[in-house]
Amino acid sequence: MTGQGEQLAIRAEDLVVGFGARLVLDRLSLEVRRGEVLGLVGGSGSGKSVLLRSIIGLLPKRAGRIEVMGVDLDRVPDRERRAVERRWGILFQQGALFSSLSALENVAFPMREHLRLSDRLRSEVALAKLEMVGLSVADANKLPAELSGGMVKRVALARALALDPDIVFLDEPTSGLDPIAAGDFDDLIKTLQQTLGLTVFMVTHDLDSLASVCDRVAALAGGKVIAVGPLAEVMAVEHPWIEAYFKGKRGRALGRAVLHMGT
Amino acid sequence: MWQQREADQLHVIDEPTLAATGQDGLTVVTPKGDWTAAFARELEALVGARTAAPTSPPARIDMKGVGRLDTYGAWLIVRLARVLGSPGAPADIADIPEHFSALMAEMGATNRTPVEQPPRTNVLTDGLAAVGRSVADLARESLVFTNMLGAVCLSLLGVVLRPRQFRLISAVHHIDRVAWQAVPIVLLITFLIGGIVAQQGFFHFRKFGADEYVVDMVGILVLRELGVLIVAIMVAGRSGSSYTAELGSMKMREEIDALRTMGIDPVNVLLLPRILALVIGLPLLTFLGSMAALYGGGLVAWLYGGMSPEIFIARLKDAISVTHFKVGMIKAPFMALAIGVVACVEGLKVQGSAESLGLQTTNSVVKSIFLVILLDGLFAIFFASIGM
Fold first, then answer.
1. What's the CA gap between B78 and B29, in Å, rounded?
2. What does the alpha-carbon distance between residue A55 and residue A169 come to, in Å, rounded to a whole number?
3. Is B107 in CB contact (< 8 Å) with chain A?
4. What is the DSSP string of A40-92?
5. Sign of CA dihedral B70, B75, B76, B81
6. Nearest to B40 among A116, A127, A144 (CB)
7. Chain A nearest CA to B224, separation (Å)
8. Where are any strands of DSSP class E within chain B?
9. CATH, domain range B8-108
10. How many CB pairs under 8 A join A and B?
11. Bridge partners of residue B69, in order along the sequence
12. At what angle do helices B272-303 and B227-235 cross, to 10 degrees?
């Protein structure tokens, strides 16, 4: 392993993913550094979620290489692959909580499967994780059906963090939340990222999240990464999609804010 | 945390320890090594042993020697501090390495109140309560069933008055699914049942030299009872369950609420076409099934019983009448109605969880098969009393 490889959490090279005759990702390359928050933006159907799902191995790729924590997941035995899988946590768009388990049991579930813990320690740490994401003890025994949308996302984040992962993948973490809740969630992600030293790979549509949480932003269009870097740099790239995205009505306000921050 | 990662890479494992020393009336507890989830068992034992040993109250935890730390280790140190200190004032945690301080602060703020344990229950009273609840449920469920039956009849009346409201395409689609696509399996099963009944008949009747009466038995049994019962039970398992699952997942995804808010009656759009499809489809399947069973019976009579097809058909003509056929066919639409209404009621009862979808689907099949058999019994009494 090279020194540079050590600093990369995720590395995708010449990735090709498609459905039938349609190529969604066309020789895409992307690098995510350790300890950073990378925001992935792109229009609807541009393949953001497809990229996320092919990195974590839920979608087959036609060509290319994916390395996570310096390990090429296609070329290692199952045991090593599972070891890498234990080092990431995933927040699905709809939460994907197990509907027959309570919030606390949902968080405790990966611990029960992967760690040798006493019942007491497991429930204490699970509760601690729930409290870290801003839920109260009163919510711990509720079933997912009894939780609000924002609370479901929080429980899902707590579950993603259950095994103290090195990387968390967030698929539109703030979609469906009101602006106040979304803002809180952004702060929460930033705090947890700093506290736990996480690498965060975040698919998002939320311009505010990009500005407040992400260290770097990657823009996806036409199956390729068209720009990657700090938000201000990406916004300056001349590309029709980027101009439409950031210089539209909503993007302009953000642009002013980012430029203001820069000065 | 960064150093921790580096150490991870080098696979240097440093067994955790927990030592305690006394210093002028102050107990200093020093955790050392890797305080991570991998050592959770050992760590808990260490913390447990330290907690069990009596210490004079003023205590301090010195974290200088901790090499690696994750949320599990951090929580155990926080737990230790709380036990060593007095309630409300945990023991001091000193010399926290800088890269762990945020994590320690975060963990220190958690688990202040324990999770409420569900109250202990008495097995005996719980059992009695469950019996009582299911009796009450039975009454409530018959009410819901009647209610749904009424809603479907009302919707049917509305469709009769204003035929344009009827969802013809949807009804045809469902007839295709529950009747047409079920034809092969229904034919196969009833053919086999007919054959089995005939074989058993020959085997046992032969002892009395009553071979010929096998035809009477097969004919009457199949037309009056077996044909319709077997087909209804199959349809309950095949189509009733799929109705429940479909409606249940629509309910989970709020599709039914969406219909309601558009001012569209779900009974009209979703339930009536489904139930009508069953009411039309089940008699057709019953007819086909009965024919297949007679065919199976005849084939066994020929191959196993040595009765030529001509004799079988002639004997069948004498043995059965249109009445037997009518008795079977009259029952079919009523059974279809029961299956359809139960399936829809159960589907609409589904709550948010996957578990409840499974539960209601099971309930739907069990209840509709029970109702089909109950109806069959009631019809038997009814036909006997009117002499059919």
1. 12
2. 10
3. yes
4. EEE-TTSSHHHHHHHHTTSS--SEEEEEETTEETTSS-HHHHHHHHTTEEEE-
5. positive
6. A116
7. 45
8. 17-23, 26-35, 59-62, 66-69, 92-94
9. 3.30.750.24
10. 83
11. B35
12. 130
B76 in reach of chain A (CB within 8 A): yes
For testing the chain A interface, which of B353, B355, B357 should be mutated: the one with the most A CBs within 10 Å?
A: B353
User: Exposed, middle or buried: residue B131 (CB in 10 Å: 0-12, 13-18, 19+)?
Assistant: exposed
Cβ burial, residue A21 (10 Å; 0-12/13-18/19+): exposed
Q: Which of B339, B349, B346 is nearest to B372 (CA)?
A: B339
Beta bridge partners of B68: B34
CA distance A139 to B113: 12
Q: State the sign of the Cα–Cα–Cα–Cα dihedral B261, B263, B265, B269.
A: negative
Per-residue burial over B183-207, b = 16 or more CB atoms within 10 Å of its CB, e = otherwise: eeebbebbbebbbebbbebbeebee
Q: A4-17: b or e for each residue (b if 16 or more CB lie within 10 Å)?
A: eeeebbbbbeebbb
Mean pLDDT computed over B308-319: 93
Phi and psi, residue A171, nearest 5°? -100, 105
pTM given for the model: 0.71
Q: B332-342 pLDDT, tens per residue?
A: 999 999 999 99
Domain boundaries along the sequence of chain B: 8-108, 162-385
Predicted confidence band of residue B239 (pLDDT cuts 50, 70, 90): very high
Count CB neighbours of B42 within 10 A: 17
List the structure tokens of B212. Answer: 């010929």
What is the separation of C-alpha A73 from the centre of its chain, rounded to a whole number of angstroms?
Answer: 19
Q: Where are the beta strands (DSSP E) in chain A?
A: 8-19, 22-33, 37-42, 63-68, 71-72, 88-91, 167-171, 199-203, 216-221, 224-229
Chain A interface mutation, best of B1, B47, B116, highest count of A Cβ atoms under 10 Å: B1
The sign of the torsion formed by the CA atoms of A211, A213, A215, A217 equals negative
CA distances from B231 to A110, A164, B187 (A): 46, 55, 9
What SS3 state is found at A115? coil
| Mean pLDDT taken over chain A | 81
- Those residues whose C-beta lies under 8 Å from the C-beta of residue B388, and which sit 6 or more positions away, are B323, B326, B327
In the structure encoding, which two tokens stand for residue B62, read together? 């010195």
In this predicted complex, what is the ipTM?
0.74
